[in-house]
Amino acid sequence: MSFIAYLINGISLGSVYAIIALGYTMVYGIAKMLNFAHGDVIMIGCYVVFTMTSGLQFNPLLSVLISVVVCTVLGIVVEKVAYKPLRKASPLAVLITAIGVSYLLQNIALLVFGADTKSFSSIITLPALKLAGGKLSISSVAIVTVVTCVIIMAGLMLFIKKTKAGRAMLAVSEDKDAAQLMGVNVNGTISLTFAIGSGLAAIAGVLLCSAYPTLTPYIGSMPGIKAFTAAVFGGIGSIPGAFIGGILLGIIEVLGRAYISSQLSDAIVFAVLIIVLLVKPTGILGKPIHEKV
Amino acid sequence: MALLEVKNLSISFGGLRAVDSFEISIQKGQLYGLIGPNGAGKTTIFNMLTGVYKPDSGIIQLDGKDITGKKTIDINKAGVARTFQNIRLFKEQSVLDNVKVGLHNSYPYSALASVLRLPKYYKAEKEMNEKARELLKVFGLEDKENYLASNLPYGAQRKLEIARALATNPKLLLLDEPAAGMNPNETKELMETIRFVRDEFDMTILLIEHDMKLVSGICEELTVLNFGQVLAQGKTKDVLNDPKVITAYLGE
Amino acid sequence: MKKMFDKNNTKKATRDSFVTYGIVILVFIIVQVMVGTGSMSSLMQGLLVPLCIYSIAAIGLNLCVGYLGELSLGHAGFMCVGAFSSAFFTKYMVDTGMNENLRFVLAIIIGTLTAALFGFLIGIPVLRLQGDYLAIVTLAFGEIIKNVMNVLYVGKDSKGLHFSVSDASALKMEEEGKMIINGPKGITGTPHQASFVIGIILILISLIIVYNLVNSRTGRAVMAIRDNRIAAESVGIPVTKFKLMAFTISAAVAGTAGVLYAHNLSTLTALPANFGYNMSIMLLVFVVLGGMGSFRGSMIAAVLLTMLPEVLRGLSDYRMLIYAIVLIAMMLFNWAPKSIEWRQRHSLKGLFSKKTKGVQ
User: Which of A81, B81, C252, C335 has its CA 20 to 30 A from that of C180?
Assistant: First the structure.
């Protein structure tokens, strides 16, 4: 039974990674940039929910909604101020700027909320699900996390396939200049991508903090890197890839921690990533790169 | 014996036969043209000759040695150098250094010799500079040696690519549309340069070109390619008067 | 910024490198005078060795990013390897009565070579990947190295060395045995042998190596691969060999920085702050801000950015915030096409603008 419990934990953690990875992968697909500050948007989202629920005693759902709005706006503003002026510059310049934004968000949080660890009380207060005569207990957080992830995934796929804005996103990710010529509002589409990615980061943050209830200005960093790894793992730029990469990463991490070594769980995750990339250099669902001579 | 002997060369991409049973025989010192409509497979042939693509079947012999399916580096070492249709210079390096990269294998000295600045380094560098300047002079680029390659005008970039290819001391030079983007005057000048290179360096040259003036002006023999297959082959004059060629290619 | 001419011409390049050596020596003299006359705060004096460490590491990374054109986010891992292997050696030899200067020189060599070996071994698979994939895999390797260092236990007794990856008691050492690497507690009690003088000497050696390498046949081949791999192959450059060579040397230089780090602290631990991806990113910031391909720029950026938070210490809580804002502002100023255009129109030469150069 413990294996199944670990597996469920892994899928739950992986779902959080998947939601974060979606943000990474969408932004990468559209703007061809690694948004290193994405993890810190998660952290801001957590603090907003924490302040709303613990400080102001708001309704949890309302708090999450406010958090999503705050993060969405944050994502759009960051893109406009820091990334947009560099759109035609070297990708490396944008990467470093994103790192600057990451430091900025961490230090703003440090000033506003302080360096001390806040204990985040889970907003999901449903009782755990007991199965197999009480031998297997699945926490409500895990269930909510997985369900949320699946809903988001499905919603996003539908959005991209069925709506005009979604198809515009696809067009921009294929060829920015051609899309512009065809009358797609490229700036608007990029803003929308950052908005969606950041909004999802807020949700991921709440789920993450509900499962691991400690809150510091630096909590976004490691899940951010892991989710980025997940996005690469699944094939960066691919939305189903982010989902698969996230889930697999979560499972590997939890099983590795349980059965091999708790201290080496990160090393195991990264080792698997390396092996996958060496076998399939563009990730599980990534398209092969061809260079025309 | 021919310098380049190609037999039954074929390659497919995703089920599409890009080049089908291509054959060519080029004598030493010849100036040979490869023409054909866009998408006929000319550059694909160059890519197979230089090891960028591995042919599905066929034999490529250079000076009697089999080079089929070998790596690009080894084919270059065996004596094949090329230019590219979409210019591929080392943009962030100087004009002189571009040629010196071409001289890389002719003046070997170790990384240790460079770090310790051994006499070998100074000697080799001096010789490389002289050799590179000599080559640049052939193409009238000697006064631009300190320019970044990317800052040269288009025509000069094409010439620099030829100079860099020549620096590797090849037996066979493959030129992929050397006159593309040049005005008639530049093209005329280029024709003279190509002829000069052939005579001066005793070079065998195979070139892809769309400019018929250039082709008929300097190529002694031609192969016309259409849909991956050889349509006509032989003396330039005969080929250009071939009714098949006129309808398939020139007539349009 | 677009430049018309290339600096990398033998004579000009030689002059450029000697200007850099001159600056390093000048800074050394000024600092010595300031320390001698007591006009340097003890806080600043404590920063001298770290400034050398970060300068060396940034020089190493610049070889990889600026010249080879490959984005590595794992150079802190090579620092970590250099630090631990050299500190291990020093700690192992500390009571053998070996001359301590000789021991330190050997430690530097060992740390550098071990990092080079790791660079080589990691480079073989990794350099097949391109762009962002290479970046993430180097990051992964860096994290693995850091992680493994935290579970490694090594002890020494009369029977020799004992290894374990679980805990100290699993070493089954004799009573009088000595712990060398103690898992997450790392290596303690390494003699404090790093000094500003040593740091400056190592900077100069690193600079001579990278400058001489870059302005040679090897450097041209490496840059040719960066600028156009297919063209480089077409003129007979063995791409894998030179990529691997540049990456290995880059890792080795980072390893040298690690040696200095290990011998500047009494306790060496592999934490996210010193050997995690954050440090790799920090080094990358030095390289990009200082100008890719400019070793001098990397050093200047490393020195300024390491000192900035210390200079701002009076502002306590706000200093890292200001640091972040300065970083973003400088990136926008240096790299935004509009800003470049504006600067060209007003012919304003920014602090780093001359050296900024795009690498594709």
Answer: C252
Domain that holds residue C177: 151-185
**Residue in C with minimal Cα distance to A283:** C133
Query: Among 3.90.226.10, 1.25.40.10, 3.40.50.300, 3.90.105.10, what is the CATH number of B1-79+170-252?
Result: 3.40.50.300
Beta bridge partners of A129: A138
Q: Which residues does chain B have within 8 Å of residue C209's beta carbon, measured at their own beta carbons? A: 115
Q: Which of C5, C212, C218 sits opposite B148 (nearest CB)?
A: C5
Which residues lie across from B8 on neighbouring strands? none
- Chain A residues near residue B43 by CB distance under 8 angstroms: 293
Domain assignment present for C90: yes
Say yes or no: C108 and C160 in one domain.
Answer: no
Residue B47 to residue C171: CA distance in whole angstroms: 59
Judge if C54 and C161 occupy the same domain. no
C360 contacts on B by Cβ (under 8 Å) = 91-92
Contact C234 B104 (CB under 8 A): no
Shortest Cα–Cα distance, B113 to chain A (Å)? 33
In Å, how far from its chain's centre is CA B90? 17
CA dihedral of residues C102, C103, C106, C107 (deg, nearest 10) = -150
Cβ–Cβ of C277/A89 closer than 8 Å? no
List the pLDDT tens digit at each of the 293 positions of chain A. Answer: 688 888 988 999 999 999 999 988 888 888 888 888 999 999 999 999 888 888 888 888 888 899 999 999 999 999 999 999 988 888 888 888 998 999 999 999 999 988 888 887 777 777 777 776 667 777 888 888 898 999 999 999 899 889 999 899 888 888 888 888 888 888 899 999 999 999 999 999 888 888 888 888 888 888 888 898 898 888 888 888 999 999 999 999 999 988 888 888 889 989 988 888 888 877 888 776 666 66
Q: What are the distances in angstroms from CA C91 to CA C79, C82, C189, C269, C293?
A: 18, 14, 8, 14, 37
Closest residue of chain B to C238, computed from CA coordinates: B73
ipTM of the complex: 0.92
Q: Which amino acid is at A201?
A: A
pTM of the model: 0.89
Written as six digits, the tokens of C147 are 């992680």
Residue C350 lies in a domain: no
Distance from CA of A62 to the nearest CA of B (A): 54
Cα A61 to the chain's mean position, in Å?
20
Mutate to test the interface with C, among A24, A94, A225 (most CBs of C within 10 A): A225
